Amino acid sequence: MVHGVSSLLISAAAGYWVLAQSSAQRDRVKKLGQWLGLAIIVVSVVGTACKLYYATTGKSMGSMLCPPGKSCPFTSKSGGAAQ
Fold first, then answer.
1. Is the Cβ–Cβ distance between 51 and 58 less than 8 Å?
2. Which residue in 1, 48, 64, 80 is a FRET match for 55, CA 20 to 30 A apart?
3. Which letter does DSSP use for residue 63 in this model?
4. How many domains is the chain partitioned into structurally?
5. Closest Cα to residue 37, out of 13, 12, 18, 9?
């Protein structure tokens, strides 16, 4: 679990680096770098939050999306969508 969180935090740092490097660019490249860096940071932070939530509660975030007693693709143990 620690390896996964550390990887996500490193990717968040890489996203910040992309964001910082984009400030030295011009026009479209600058805008693209800002959006890409921000997207990397957001995905990394959300992923870290999900991993920490799972580590502390033992439940996946997908279990919050499906009502109890229903078939849910997020909590299915089958491993495949089509059966």
1. no
2. 80
3. G
4. 1
5. 18
Distance CA 32, CA 19 (A): 9
Residues whose CB is less than 8 angstroms from the CB of residue 21 and which lie 6 or more positions away in sequence, other chains included = 33
Q: What is the pLDDT of residues 18-76, one digit of tens each?
A: 999 998 889 999 999 999 999 999 999 888 888 888 778 777 666 566 666 666 655 55
Q: What are the pLDDT digits (tens) for 39-49?
A: 999 999 888 88
Whether residue 66 lies inside any domain: the answer is no
Which DSSP symbol is given to 74? Answer: T
Alpha carbon 82 to its chain centroid, in Å, reads: 26
Domain range for 32 is 2-59
Q: Which residue has the tokens 């997020």?
A: 74
The phi and psi torsions of 59 (rounded to 5 degrees) equal: -110, 145
SS3 29: helix
| DSSP label of 47 | H
